[in-house]
Amino acid sequence: MPIDLSPDPVAARLAERTAEFVRDIVLPLEEEHRGVVRSEDVRTHLQDAAKQAGVFAPHVAREYGGHGLDMRGRSVVFEAAGYSLLGPLALNIAAPDEGNMHLLEAIATEQQKERYLRPLASGAIRSCFAMTEPAPGAGSDPDALATRADRVDGGWRINGRKWFITGADGAGFAICMARTSGEPGDRGGATMFLVDQDNPGMRTVRHIETLDESLYGGHIELLFDDCVVPDEAVLGEVDEGFRYAQIRLGPARMTHCMRWLGIAQRAQDIAVARASDRRLFGARLGDLGMTQQMIADNEIDIAASRALIRQASWELDQGGRAGQATAIAKTFCAEAIWRVVDRALQICGSLGVSGDLPLGRFLREVRPFRIYDGPSETHRWAIARRVLRHHEKTAGS
């Protein structure tokens, strides 16, 4: 089967309009707010502007107000939006809402789609995905899931503690992963539940102070304490939560890469402009060999990241799980994007360290990506296991 990594013309045009929207509308607001927004008024303003520009919700089906792009189409639009820290928020493609919309479209009932997906897709509400737990609970190893859900009359009672739940502050609902069979360490036995914001059994314990600050709604520790939900709150089938998580996690890893690649490109643009203008030792900074090497290495990392993202996106568009391709792309991109931003800051010298440029902020924001959505070490372990299994299978046959 021939592989076509290029987006269709519709997506390419939408990416151009997105780049223009980010440049004219979003970047001035990012500069005003130093890349961090906590105001619903600003969020609403950005999203209303994106709707007016015709670039809002590129990933959602048209019946829910979006453009219905496939993963290859998203790759170019999300990168264009990611050129600003606030671009994904404006287009309603920021984590975790974007991944939750993808999941709801795939497995929610029609009633659940009307109640949760439609307002989420329109930006009327936000959401969070409550899976990660404090040690020794679920993290890199999801089988360690300790939060439990037990049957009660007409529904389920959830008990457990979650942390690093991005966007939970002010979210209209949570998708909570809880164990409905087995014990921590057992494979399988998880179920996803839709929990409304006003459920008295779900409450915020604290905001977790983190290196990054730009993700809207923060990173929150949540407590589920005798949190009772009805049977219709089950998302998908009971005990199938880990299988459904794969529907969300592979594409979500790629969309993270797409958005952060936009920041890497912006960091490179800033560095190239500085290298072109700055003069020292009787020459332009960009004429010096070590500067040229950093610029070239940045171009290589950006191009390689883009190619890996599109390869994995193509595999996802063919209907496959693309586990190996998404793990490779996520691991490489998380590290390459850090290298690009770090080199860009180095090229800009003291100006890069200062608050006069956003590179210091970018460096803080991209560093956790090597941990979020699975640390690089976990992905490398999984990549190697697949290679070894493939070798053993082919050698045996």
TrEMBL record:
Q: What is the lineage of its organism?
A: Bacteria, Bacillati, Actinomycetota, Actinomycetes, Pseudonocardiales
Keyword flag Ribosomal protein: no
Q: Which cofactor does it need?
A: FAD
Sequence ranges assigned to domain Acyl-CoA dehydrogenase/oxidase N-terminal in this UniProt record: 14-123
Biological process (GO) annotations held by this record are:
fatty acid beta-oxidation using acyl-CoA dehydrogenase
Q: In terms of domain of life, where is this protein from?
A: Bacteria
- What is the protein name stated in its UniProt record? Acyl-CoA dehydrogenase
Q: Mind listing the UniProt keywords for this protein, alphabetically?
A: FAD, Flavoprotein, Oxidoreductase
Domain Acyl-CoA dehydrogenase/oxidase C-terminal span(s) in chain numbering: 239-388
Q: Which residues form the Acyl-CoA oxidase/dehydrogenase middle domain?
A: 128-209
Q: Which GO terms describe its molecular function?
A: acyl-CoA dehydrogenase activity; flavin adenine dinucleotide binding
GO CC annotation? cytoplasm
Q: How does it assemble?
A: Homodimer.
As for family, the record states: Belongs to the acyl-CoA dehydrogenase family.
Region forming the signal peptide: none
